[in-house]
């Protein structure tokens, strides 16, 4: 993978995000299980190994058929009908249907929550950061409409560091001169990100026909997506995991009850069950944490 960091506190994590993640538009995913433990970065449909036996054409027909069946039952169940396969598939993903979409977030604190909230006491968890430049579905549609789209200058690359103006953590008051020995960089970071392709509308008419991975910012089919700053990664090869050269791993060590301590600090920043799951499930989960799991 591109780089590997170990952190043992909330402050360590903020330092890595602020000072080490030199990516202009990063996407984060928190997991209670690391990829090295077998939980590779792949969409939910890729975890059904029997699908690997299908011929690509048969797998394509299978995905389309499953979505058609789901779509036929959507009428009467939602306030607004999806307009295309992207929206139908996002709705299906939200309701638990295995799809070629993967859940990611633009908020590193949300990713840290998902890494720590249900982590086992004796196992490290991790946050993953995509390093490969990936085009956004909405950008492709807009750029194809704009016949005079601006060309990015050669010097404007994804490798430049985010300015304080763009950095949501620039005001967290971390001492940049402080040497914290709890941060361990296992590999020298190198984020030489490729230029994105020039895709057009016809290339993204369906998520089943894409020729490369696409970031899809779904219409907010649920308050949860909005609360979690969620985006979906549409995987061009959904039966294969993301290559380890395409992401950074930030390992959250389990020692000294770190996961629980980090969750307590995240709550102070407004990142906790009740806020990320603005429904009765989230309220119940938050009460369980506060009244039953919080040492009372």
Task: Briefly characterize the structure.
The protein is 29% helix and 12% strand.
Please count the beta strands (DSSP E, at least 2 residues each).
8
Structural class of the helix and strand makeup?
A: alpha+beta
Strand composition percent = 5-15%
Distance N to C terminus: 41 Å
| Coarse morphology | globular
> What is the residue-mean pLDDT, rounded to a whole number?
81
Description:
There is one protein chain. The protein has helices spanning 10-19, 56-72, 85-94, 108-116, 137-145, 223-227, 258-268, 273-276, 280-291; strands at 3-7, 28-31, 101-105, 125-130, 184-185, 214-216, 230-234, 247-252. The protein has 296 residues and is α+β, with helices and mostly antiparallel strands. It has one domain. The strands form 2 sheets. A 5-stranded mixed β-sheet has the order 2-4-8-1-5. A 3-stranded antiparallel β-sheet has the order 3-7-6. Helix 4 runs antiparallel to helix 7 (258-268). It is globular.
């Amino acid at each position: 993978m591109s780089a590997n960091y170990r952190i043992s506190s909330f402050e360590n994590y903020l330092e890595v995000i602020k000072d080490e993640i030199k990516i202009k538009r990063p996407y984060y995913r928190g997991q209670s299980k690391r990829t090295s433990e077998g939980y590779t970065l792949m969409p939910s449909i890729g975890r059904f190994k029997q699908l690997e036996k299908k011929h690509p054409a048969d797998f394509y027909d299978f995905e389309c058929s499953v979505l058609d069946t789901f779509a036929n039952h959507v009428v009467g169940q939602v306030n607004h009908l999806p307009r295309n396969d992207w929206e139908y598939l996002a709705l299906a993903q939200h309701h638990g249907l295995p799809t070629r979409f993967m859940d990611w977030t633009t908020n590193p604190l949300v990713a840290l929550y998902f890494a720590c909230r249900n982590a086992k006491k004796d196992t490290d968890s991790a946050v993953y950061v995509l390093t490969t430049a990936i085009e956004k579905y909405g950008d492709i549609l807009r750029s194809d409409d704009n016949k005079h789209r601006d060309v990015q200058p050669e010097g404007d690359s994804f490798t430049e560091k985010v300015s304080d103006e763009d950095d949501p953590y620039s005001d967290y008051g971390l001492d940049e001169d402080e040497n914290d020995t709890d941060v361990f960089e296992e590999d020298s970071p190198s984020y030489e990100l490729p230029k994105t392709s020039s895709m057009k509308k016809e290339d993204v008419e369906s998520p089943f026909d894409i020729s490369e991975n696409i970031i899809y910012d779904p219409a907010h089919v649920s308050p949860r997506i909005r609360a979690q700053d969620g985006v979906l990664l549409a995987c061009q090869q959904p039966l294969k995991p993301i290559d380890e050269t395409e992401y950074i791993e930030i390992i959250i060590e389990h020692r000294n009850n770190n996961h629980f301590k980090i969750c307590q600090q995240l709550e102070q920043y407004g990142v906790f069950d009740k806020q990320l799951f603005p429904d009765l499930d989230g309220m119940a989960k938050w009460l369980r944490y506060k009244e039953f799991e919080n040492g009372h």
